[in-house]
Amino acid sequence: MSARRVKPSLYISVDIEADGPIPGPYSMLSLGAAVAGVQDGGGFTAADPEERTFYRELRPISEKFVPEALAVSGLDRARLTAEGAEAAVALAEFTAWVREVSAGAQPVMCGYPAAYDWTFLYWYLIRFTGSSPFGHSGCLDMKTLYATKAGLPLRAVAKGTMPRELLSRRRHTHHALDDAIEQAELFANLMKWPGATLS
Questions:
Q1: How far apart are alpha carbons 52 and 36 in whole angstroms?
Q2: Residue 168 confidence (pLDDT)
Q3: pLDDT of residue 68
Q4: Phi first, then psi: what are they for 104, rounded to 5°?
Q5: Residue 3: what pLDDT?
Q6: In 10 A of CB 191, how many CB atoms?
Q7: Which of 93, 96, 123, 115 minimizes the C-alpha distance to 107?
Q8: What pLDDT, on a 0 to 100 scale, did the predictor assign at position 199?
Q9: Burial call 88-98: b when 16+ CB within 10 Å, e when fewer
């Protein structure tokens, strides 16, 4: 099949904040997303990551939480219990947003690292909406992308090991939307980076 006939991929940087290590016993407390760019047969085109964004704070789904995990986000569980969106509503709104911004393309979630955020996102989507706009595997891990291009073992990769020109100049704040936007810039830089020159 010609690359020019493949449906484009619309990359969406996603960051979540949660109060524990796994969904179900613990809760996703906030969800941020930013369109990072689109890839078609002609290559990758970066988007302005502040232009198309999504953010919701969610009501906890259980009483359990890990204090250290909660402290990372700085979110207030008591406030979210009173004011946070119901998970079913927030995830339905997110699905509608993904479908709107990815019209004509296949949406792909990207994260740094993707494993934690994807675990919560996919579980919540299936549990509360019954389906995922990304399918079951529409997920790209930026750590793996960098490791492959840099010729490094995955476990050797951290943001501190990356060339500075790849990193966003934004601070990593542990606010889900801030971090989704920051990671969208990292993703766009990684997609355009030719990779390490191996001697």
A1: 9
A2: 83
A3: 94
A4: 85, 0
A5: 52
A6: 20
A7: 96
A8: 45
A9: eebbbebbebb
DSSP designation for 101: H
Alpha carbon separation from 178 to 21, 30, 32, 46 (Å, rounded): 21, 12, 8, 18
The reported pLDDT for the residue numbered 57 is 98
β-strand partners of 44: 39
Q: What does the pLDDT look like over 15-35, one tens digit per residue?
A: 999 999 999 999 999 999 999
| Residue 49 backbone dihedrals phi, psi, to 5 degrees | -70, -10
Look at residue 177 in the predicted model and tell me its pLDDT: 97
CB crowding 27-54: b at 16 or more within 10 Å, else e = bbbbbbbbbbbbbeeeebebbebeebbb
What does pTM read for this prediction?
Answer: 0.94
Q: Which residue has the tokens 């010609």?
A: 2
Intra-chain end-to-end CA distance of the chain, in Å: 34
Q: Which residues of the chain have pLDDT under 50?
A: 1, 199
Residue 16: how many CB atoms within 10 A of its CB? 24
Distance CA 87, CA 147 (A): 34
Neighbours of 119 (CB within 10 A): 17
Beta carbons within 10 angstroms of residue 151's beta carbon: 10
Q: Quick one: DSSP state of residue 26?
A: B
